[in-house]
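Sat 14:20. Reprocessing the chain from the morning session after the first attempt stalled halfway. Input below, unchanged.
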Amino acid sequence: MERASREPAKDAYILLRVVFIFAPIIAGFDKFFNLLVDWEQYLGVHFGAYGKTFMMIAGVVEIIAGLGVIFRPKLFANIIGLWLALIIINLLILEDFFDIALRDFGLCLSAFALGRLAKVYGR
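Finished this time. Tokens:
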């Protein structure tokens, strides 16, 4: 039987860090290719013809944020948390995709938890 970790909070930090490195980078790259989903469906009509351009900018932001978690996890975890909060607001304004907003709320809180754990375990 595998021995339990002596530092479960550090284990949580490592798991969250891995998630918030890879998930934003993958989602960011997919903003250019739409292989996972058509990302523009999550934008309101106020973006109009600029939806694709906005999604490409969002993709770059997400890639930078994911890479940032590698080097400055405390800072970039909180940036990701704020980014997710903005996404939630957008989804609620659309009055649709409430399931996605709920999922992103969990991710948002997880990103902020990573930021808190990074104060202890981060570089």
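Helices lie at 8-33, 51-71, 73-94, 98-121.
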